[in-house]
Amino acid sequence: MSNIALTVEEINALDKLEIIQHPVVKQRFITIHDTLWGPGTGEPAYERESIFFNRILNDEQKLQRATKFSIFSTFIDLAVCGLSLEPGARALCYLTGRNYNIGVDQSGKKIYEGRLVLTISGYGELVLRRRCGQIRHADNPVVVYEEDKFSFSDIDGRKTVSYTCNFPHKSNRIVACYLRITRADGTIDYGVMLEEDWKRLQGYSEENNRYWDKEARQWVKNPNELYVSNNGSIDPAFLMAKCIKHAFKTYPKVRIGKYTDFESNQVDEPQPEIDDFYGIREPEPEPQPEPASFAPPQDLSAGVSVNNDDDDDGTF
Fold this sequence. Notes:
Layout: H1 8-12, H2 23-37, H3 42-59, H4 68-81, E1 93-104, E2 110-120, H5 122-131, E3 135-138, E4 142-145, E5 149-155, E6 158-164, E7 174-183, E8 188-194, H6 195-208, E9 211-213, E10 218-220, H7 236-247, E11 260-262, E12 291-292
Parallel strand pairs: 2-11
Antiparallel strand pairs: 1-2, 1-12, 3-7, 4-7, 5-6, 7-8, 9-10
């Protein structure tokens, strides 16, 4: 690993939109990408991702509330993961902001710090799991409507799904979603979500995003609108992403950066094997508090977005 490094003070002296353009940051990104994903891959990856990264920061002004150190670290995590911030309906990853409680002031009031986080979508998770050999292939998620014929069984650990699509879908009511996975050894696994599963997640979303109505003097529950945006039913694209996340919750972890989260599994502990990637001399210790949201949820189906539910608490 290169000895090229920046101090936290040097990073904090830069403008937030200039951090990833710094020559040392550029060289570190390229070196890490070349080391992990093959010689010659770092330069084009940097040129591409630096454009996406700064464009998102410039367009999403709220993300600039994040600390400069977290902006630097999140960009380096892109090289660690080898994914792209290219937007789209099946974006592999995106940027979110989170408020972290870093202590209390003299009056006992909590003090929060905004940090940028690289969040890997369900589609990005599929890419990483294929790379590390956990799976051979995963089909596209299948949305099951009320008119369809569907059954799911799990006998002695062997999962099977029977599905027949019956057109037309007049009711537009979604009752299930499933994902067929081919494991590395050739066996088949299924991830299945039923209506009761996402209703439970919707309940968590309502609690996480509730707000106090001063006029009515009561708490108002405010779930992610994608749970009901499809004429009262869940949005199909949103559900497919949820199904991918749900399917891999029991799979082993794969390597990601310290400022990176999976939508399906929030990283609880730092990974010591990648500590040297950041090249920061004596960084200030990072506390591990519970995050708290300070902005409403956004739509992930459009690409770069925030999806705020039980899996994604604390976004802004």
